[in-house]
Structure formats: structure tokens, C-alpha cells
Design a protein that fits this description.
Elements (H helix, E strand, L loop, with lengths): L8 H9 L8 H22 L26 H14 L5 E6 L17 E9 L10 E9 L10 H4 L8 E7 L3 E6 L5 E6 L4 E6 L10 E3 L10 H12 L10 E2 L5 H11 L2 E4 L12 E2 H14 L3 E3 L16 E2 L1 E4 L1 H12 L10 H5 L6
Helix pairs in contact: 2-3, 5-8
Bound molecules: 1,6-di-O-phosphono-beta-D-fructofuranose and magnesium ion (2 copies).
């Protein structure tokens, strides 16, 4: 055991690498660069108003909007820059993609290209940043499908979540945490602000299969499909309803913080496909929100789904594709999938939402 009594992230990665004697070390170097970017973001977040980092990004006089049509916060842009600058130089990446960039980012010369692709949401929940609520960064590592020395294309990134080599997130809350899966369970690290190191504090995280806590943005309830409405109604009915137990509800509006709570004590999170905006089949993005969080959940014994299918099996069609997402305690996610698969109850046949969309769409 190291002198401090706890393993650092570096020591954890070295031990994991011993399982793969042929590994080059590129992967570990990449994860350590990602962790460094997260530490830089954590510092910027922690300084808040003192660091003049709050508020909207003012690219032009009217602010800036990302590819999603969302107003960018100063910290969205800064966090994106940290990810790019801190990971591009090391020779382990063939390209990057981010929520904040419309097209894939090419590794600039003179830096060598490498064998991995990095996909990230540099700051999740950034609408919460000005009110000092927890935010985080989410990342996913894929293998580049080519060894040719060419620019990364959008098609290179369109791999189902099952192909992820690793995924994780950093949470900038009361403490800064880094949660990682390299496909061998899930480990949580807490930033020691004095040492500037992520220390292993939560080895082998697991999501309990049962829960009495659910998280959903209930202001969208009029747009929900019948199976989601049924699930939530049954939770709300509590002890005297069909579930015969009381449920509690949570909604932080930072998915990364909800994922962390669920990883710590169980729960279920829903941002399902709904009819709010016909152009958006869901709120969250498949490649840099749903897939990495889905990978972490499944590695921790939980489940992640579109409501109909395991989310990790979905073949992506676009870099910024949105998708319905349900994740967390296994038995609750399975129940929600069952409700989607069951034929509609007679009383639901009048619900226009039920006619509008086929039950078999993703
Ligand atoms: O307030 P809404 O519209 O329901 O959206 C909340 C969701 O949006 C997000 O903030 C989207 O992520 P970004 O902040 O990275 O755009 C999720 O973290 C969160 O669950
Ligand atoms: Mg996000
Ligand atoms: Mg974001």
C-alpha cells in the first residue's frame, strides 16, 4: 500500500495495466490527461465569481450559441478548451468530439496522432453554474477505426456504446470526484486539494438493484408517453398504489450529479423521449452523455436503456444525436422497459401520444 494509505489514480491505472502486459501505456497517459483537464476545470469552477468565469460567453456582442442552439456559458467554452489543450499533445488521440463543437476536432500538427478517440461533454449541467449547484464533465474513449494518418471523420465516432474502451465523469461538487470504468467495474476517486491528486476512495461501486427514489423533470409530464406516465403515476401513488411503497423524488438538473447519486445509493433517472419538440427525440445526447453514463451504470451492475432497448446497443447516426434515456437501479429500469413493451391499457388508447409514435421506435 502506498505511503498515503490510499492509491492515487496513477497507481490504480498502473495496476489495471498489469492485466494487459502488451499495453503501450497510451491509454493510461490519455486518462491522466483527461483527469488533469478535470482538475483544471474544478479549479476554475471553484473560483466562481472571483475568477470571472460565471455568466454567458460573450464571443460576439450577443453571446455565443453551440451546435445544439444553446447559449454557451463562459465555463462551457473554457472547459472545452481545457479538454482540447491538455489532451491533444500526447500522441494518443486520433481525434476528439465535443458537445461544444459541431465537427470533429483534428489533432493539430506537430502533435502525432494516436489510436483513441475522445468524446466529451466538457461541462454537464452548466445552466446550474451561476447558482452554485454541482456540475461535471463526462467523457468516453473509443478506439479509432483506422490506423491511417488521416483526419478523423464523423463516421469514425459513430460506434455503439458497447465499443467504449473506457468512460467516466468528474463531478465538481462539495468535493471533486473522478469516476472511471475501464471495463472492469467502476472506481471513484476524490481530489485531495493539497496533493492535487485523485485518491481512490470508492473502489468497486455498485448500484443497488432496488430503490424508492426516482428523478425526472416533471414539468414535461404533459409530453410524456403513456408508459412513462404510468410509471411515475404508480410511484406517486405510493403505499396505497400498485407499488405498495412510498417513493421519493429528486431533480438536480445536472445529469452527472444525478448519475453520481444513483451510483452512491441507487435510484432511477428518466429523461425519456417525449413529444415536446418533434425535432428532438429526447433531451440528452447519445455519444457524450447517454453512452458514457450508460457504460458506468452497467459496469456498476445497474442498467441503462432508451426505455425500449439497452442504450449501449444503439447504432449512432450523428455526432450530436439525442436519445431518450433511463438508467439506474436494475429492477426499476427493467420495469420501465416492460411498461414500454406491454400493449397499452384500455384507458390509454385515447391518449394521442400513444397513437403518434410506434412502440417499436428507439
Ligand atoms: O432543465 P432541463 O431542460 O430539463 O434539462 C436538464 C438536463 O440538461 C442537461 O443540463 C444537459 O447537459 P448540458 O448542460 O451539458 O447541456 C443535463 O445535465 C440535465 O439533466
Ligand atoms: Mg450535458
Ligand atoms: Mg455540457
Amino acid at each position: 500500500m502506498p505511503l498515503t494509505g490510499r492509491k492515487t489514480l496513477t497507481q490504480y491505472l498502473i495496476e489495471e495495466r498489469r492485466r494487459f502486459p502488451e499495453a503501450s501505456g497510451d491509454f493510461n497517459a490519455l486518462i491522466l490527461d483527461v483527469a488533469m483537464a478535470c482538475k483544471a476545470i474544478a479549479r476554475a469552477v471553484a473560483f466562481g465569481a472571483l475568477g470571472d468565469v460565471l455568466g454567458n460567453h460573450a464571443a460576439a456582442a450577443g453571446g455565443s450559441v453551440n451546435v445544439q442552439g444553446e447559449t454557451q456559458k463562459k465555463l462551457d467554452v473554457l472547459s472545452n478548451d481545457y479538454f482540447l489543450r491538455i489532451t491533444e499533445w500526447g500522441g494518443h488521440l486520433a481525434g476528439m468530439a465535443s458537445e461544444e463543437m459541431e465537427a470533429p476536432y483534428q489533432i493539430p500538427s506537430p502533435y502525432p496522432r494516436g489510436k483513441y478517440l475522445l468524446v466529451f461533454d466538457p461541462l454537464d449541467g452548466s445552466s446550474n453554474i451561476d447558482v452554485n449547484v454541482s456540475v461535471g464533465s463526462i467523457f468516453s474513449v473509443l478506439r479509432s477505426p483506422t490506423t491511417d494518418d488521416r483526419d478523423a471523420t464523423e463516421a469514425d465516432f459513430l460506434q455503439p456504446g458497447t465499443q467504449q474502451v473506457a468512460a467516466g465523469y468528474a463531478l465538481y461538487g462539495p468535493t471533486t470526484m473522478f469516476v472511471l470504468s475501464v471495463g472492469n467495474g467502476v472506481a471513484g476517486f476524490t481530489l485531495d486539494p493539497n496533493l492535487g491528486e485523485f485518491m481512490l476512495t470508492h473502489p468497486d461501486l455498485t448500484v443497488p438493484a432496488d430503490t424508492v427514489e426516482f428523478a425526472i423533470n416533471a414539468s414535461n409530464s404533459r409530453f410524456w408517453e403513456a408508459p412513462v406516465k404510468r410509471y411515475v403515476d404508480e410511484c406517486l401513488a405510493g403505499r396505497t398504489g400498485p407499488r405498495a411503497k412510498d417513493f421519493n423524488m429528486r431533480w438536480i438538473a445536472s445529469m452527472v450529479a444525478e448519475a453520481h447519486r444513483i451510483l452512491m445509493r441507487g435510484g432511477v433517472f428518466l429523461y425519456p423521449r417525449d413529444s415536446k419538440d418533434a425535432a428532438k427525440p429526447g433531451r440528452l445526447r447519445l455519444l457524450y452523455e447517454a453512452n458514457p453514463i450508460g457504460f458506468i451504470m452497467e459496469q456498476a451492475g445497474g442498467r441503462a436503456s432508451t426505455g425500449r432497448l439497452p442504450v449501449l446497443g444503439v447504432q449512432p447516426e450523428g455526432l450530436h444525436q439525442r436519445i431518450g434515456l433511463v438508467f439506474g437501479s436494475k429492477h426499476e429500469v427493467e420495469r420501465i422497459e416492460r411498461y414500454h413493451a406491454e400493449p397499452p391499457a384500455h384507458k390509454d388508447l385515447d391518449n394521442p401520444l400513444f397513437h403518434e409514435r410506434s412502440l417499436f421506435r428507439v
